[in-house]
Design goal:
13 helices; lyase; hydrolase activity; alpha/beta; hydrolase; Amidohydro-rel; single chain; 440 residues; 2 domains; TIM Barrel
Length: 440
């Protein structure tokens, strides 16, 4: 093993860079690499192999082999990495049994009915739009709404340019610089910009915004805002008034999954998965899961004409009864699945009843740049009645079960509800039906 620092961290080094480490829990270390901006460097820690290393800025796992990994230093800051080595006594990190159970398996090559995916970030896609459009046709996806990231310097124009490569099928969402509201008259200018995004760029939604406990302009890693802008902050009122007047739904990511708010110890049901996505770790001073949702609910009460699409089953897929209560209280609240099919698949009968009752308030969504296999996993969960199957790269101990949703529920969840919220999606469905060829 390589030499370790006094903190117990491995001794990382990169030529031409300043590298520092600090403990981040018992078995993890935050690694900061400061060097030439925008360039790749080779980070080394010889002999340190049994680990997970994650780029916190780009939010992606890196391939670590033989004690070295190539990283990219961002343009405007140092690189932040999380290195985690599971201790030998916690065997759950290595436990991946081969199931002996054999049950019928359903191959779902495409969705049974046309799909509108309201939640994607295709500016992260390295492929050409034509390749994405080909995948959509293959999988029976009529339209995808894509949004950009203001904290990456992206704007609505970038999503609109991408959408022009597949008109009517890739739909742009408005990208909002939430920090603008801190300046005098900022929210009014944000409202004007939103109207411009609709008029000039064809924005159909307000792209995903996050409040995980430090406000809507918190990047999720690094220093936290000194003056948080929470969803119900009065400084944002002019913006929300404009969104309601424009009838433009907002995709809102409230908090993270419930397990992220519990101690990360042997009793946490999502321990392995949380360690593999360390950007979900709570930072000191954060609002709790319930507090974030309470602020969102106050916003809905103050602006009854506002439509909010709660991302990732409102961060509460393990508490569908709680989600039902929120839906009953707030007519302007909708939920999107946000690649949380694994949560529904743990509770197939309860989840199927929930989707049946609330089919007109649920929309289909993925996240980031979904691939073919992930879409098919989602379709399999919603359509099949398969028992006890597992996903690719599973990080949870329990198996998945198909919900076997009836056709009328599938139609609503896949696209019916989205078509009511987004007129451009309804037009895309008509065009898709005219052009598509059945995949089965």
């Amino acid at each position: 093993m390589t030499a370790r620092t006094s903190s117990g961290a491995p001794e990382f080094r990169a030529e031409g860079c300043t590298v520092s480490t600090e403990p981040y829990g018992r078995h993890a270390h935050l690694v900061t690499v400061d060097g030439p901006r925008g360039e790749q460097v080779l980070l080394k820690a010889p002999g340190w192999r049994h680990t997970v290393i994650t780029d916190l800025v780009r939010k992606e796992h890196l391939t670590w082999g033989e004690g070295e990994v190539m990283i990219r230093i961002p343009e405007g800051r140092a690189a932040w990495l999380m290195a985690f080595t599971p201790p030998p006594e916690v065997s759950v990190f290595d436990y991946a049994p081969t199931p002996q159970l054999r049950t019928p398996q359903t191959e779902v090559s495409c969705a049974r009915f046309p799909v509108v995916d309201v939640h994607a970030h295709l500016t992260l896609d390295e492929e050409q739009p034509g390749q994405r459009l080909g995948l959509m046709r293959e999988l029976n996806i009529a339209a995808v709404v894509t949004s950009s990231f203001a904290d990456r310097g992206e704007t609505t124009a970038g999503s609109a340019e991408l959408a022009r490569a597949a008109p009517g099928r890739l739909l742009p969402a408005a990208t909002v610089d939430w920090s603008s509201a801190r300046r005098r008259g900022g929210a009014e200018r944000m409202a004007e910009s939103l109207a411009s995004d609709v008029r000039e760029h064809g924005a159909v939604l307000i792209g995903e915004l996050h409040d995980k406990g430090f406000g809507v302009d918190d990047p999720g890693t690094g220093p936290v805002p000194e003056d948080p802008l929470f969803l119900d902050d009065p400084r944002l009122d002019p913006f929300w008034e404009a969104a309601a007047a424009l009838r433009l739904p907002a995709i809102v990511h409230c908090g993270d999954e419930l397990a992220a708010y519990e101690p990360w110890d042997s009793r946490n049901e999502a321990l392995v998965r949380l360690f593999r996505k360390p950007w979900a770790r709570r930072r000191p001073g954060s609002l709790g899961h319930g507090e974030v949702h309470e602020r969102r609910d106050r916003l809905l009460k103050r602006f009854p004409g506002l439509t909010v699409i709660a991302a990732h089953i409102d961060g509460s897929g393990e508490r569908l009864d709680t989600v039902e209560e929120r839906l009953r209280l707030h007519p302007g609240l909708f939920v999107e699945l946000g690649a949380c099919h694994h949560v529904l698949a743990r509770q197939p009968r309860h989840a199927a009843r929930f989707l049946d009752r609330w089919r007109d308030r649920v929309v289909f969504g993925g996240d980031r740049v979904q691939d073919r296999a992930t879409y098919r996993e989602q379709f399999r969960v919603l359509e099949s009645d398969d028992d006890a199957f597992h996903y690719r790269g599973r990080q949870d101990p329990w198996p998945a079960y198909g919900l076997a949703l009836p056709d009328d529920v599938l139609r609503a969840v896949y696209s019916g509800t989205a078509a009511r919220l987004v007129p451009a999606a309804a037009e895309a469905l008509i065009r898709h039906e005219e052009e598509r060829t059945p995949c089965r």
